[in-house]
């Protein structure tokens, strides 16, 4: 006669074995995968993520379908992962801003350190400060001098409170001892329109402005990376302009927590290899996006330090709630 405890254990285990046949049988993916892009269409990150989603989809044998969810400083994609099934069919762009959002919002709907699977880091954003081509300001020093002469009168646009652009501008203003008035927008397209129509004096954003700088409609005053942009070699970095600050804003692809390691590996490999496609490289060159690849283990391991970096930035800016 069979041992009764052993029989009970076998019966309890049976439903667990039946619960994930697709993963166990290696069928992933057998249908399209959604990729949430937390920016409006046309932003540099949007263009890059669409290109790499297309390339990764060809490697996976199923389309990776982009879905824009702009707003909340680029964190609505992360929010969509919180309650998604961890089956690999729901992905989103993840970046340091999700930590900043959680730290600055006591009622955030997710925990950025525990609620996600950080699959692969891919690139980062090259940020800079631009003005209209007919602006009287030709350098960052010109803008800072104008701001000192009329505190609060000059306006600058970013992607919203606690966005990386806003945080960097606060840091620049503190270091330079000046005050400009912040005007938030939902995306790069709105920022471009606002500057062209002179609703704001200055825009701080990722490199979506690059084509307009190349066309002579915007003037690029300074870039925030560690080195100058090859496309605009005459434009100084913040450090060269006297502000000891580097902003590269690395980002990648993530999913809900609890994903099957085999599925994570499949997705990681597809997106990593897609970085080498000519179409993806062309987009990266167009927007001067760096290759900042990290594998799954390294991407995950980088997050606690990223979380503390964002906490320190919010504290310096006086935006960290009490108790955080």
Overview of this structure, please?
Residues 1-24 form the signal peptide. InterPro entries: BUG (IPR005064), Bug_dom1 (IPR042100). It holds the Pfam family TctC. It comes from Roseomonas fluvialis. This protein is α/β, with parallel strands linked by helices and 324 residues long. The protein folds into two domains: 31-124 and 249-316, 3-Layer(aba) Sandwich (D-Maltodextrin-Binding Protein, domain 2), CATH 3.40.190; 127-223, D-Maltodextrin-Binding Protein, domain 2, CATH 3.40.190. The protein has helices at 4-19, 21-24, 44-60, 76-81, 97-104, 140-149, 164-176, 188-196, 210-214, 261-274, 278-286, 296-301, 303-316, and strands at residues 33-37, 64-68, 90-95, 116-124, 127-132, 155-158, 181-184, 202-206, 218-223, 250-256, 291-294. The strands form two sheets. The chain has a six-stranded mixed beta sheet, with helices on both faces. Helix 3 (44-60) runs antiparallel to helix 11 (278-286) and helix 5 packs across helix 13. The radius of gyration is 22 Å and the shape is globular.
């Amino acid at each position: 006669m069979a041992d009764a405890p052993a029989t009970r254990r076998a019966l309890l285990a049976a439903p667990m074995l039946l619960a994930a046949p697709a993963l166990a049988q290696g069928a992933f993916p057998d249908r399209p995968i959604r990729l949430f892009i937390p920016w409006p269409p046309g932003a540099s990150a949007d263009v890059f993520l669409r290109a790499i989603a297309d390339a990764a989809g060809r490697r996976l044998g199923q389309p990776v379908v982009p879905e824009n969810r702009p707003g909340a400083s680029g964190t609505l994609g992360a929010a969509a992962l919180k309650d998604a099934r961890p089956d690999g069919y729901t992905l989103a762009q993840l970046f340091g801003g999700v930590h900043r959002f959680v730290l600055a919002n006591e009622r955030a709907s997710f925990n950025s350190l525990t609620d996600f699977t950080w699959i692969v880091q891919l690139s980062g954003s090259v940020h800079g400060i631009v003005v209209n081509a007919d602006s009287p300001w030709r350098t960052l020093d010109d803008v800072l001098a104008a701001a000192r002469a009329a505190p609060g009168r000059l306006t600058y646009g970013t992607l919203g409170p606690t966005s990386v652009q806003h945080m960097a501008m606060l840091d620049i203003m503190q270091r330079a001892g000046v005050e400009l008035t912040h005007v938030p927008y939902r995306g790069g397209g709105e920022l471009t329109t606002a500057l062209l129509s002179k609703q704001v004096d200055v825009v701080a954003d990722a490199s979506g402005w690059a084509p307009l700088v190349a066309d002579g409609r915007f003037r690029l005053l300074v870039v925030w990376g560690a080195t100058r942009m090859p496309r605009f070699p005459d434009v100084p970095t913040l450090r060269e302009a006297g502000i000891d600050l580097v902003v590269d804003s690395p980002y990648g692809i993530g999913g809900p927590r609890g994903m099957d390691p085999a599925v994570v590996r499949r997705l990681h490999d597809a997106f990593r290899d897609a970085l080498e496609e000519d179409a993806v490289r062309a987009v990266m060159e167009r927007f001067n996006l760096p290759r900042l690849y990290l594998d799954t283990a390294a991407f995950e391991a980088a997050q606690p330090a990223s979380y503390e970096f964002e906490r320190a930035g919010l504290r310096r800016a006086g935006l960290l709630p009490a108790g955080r």
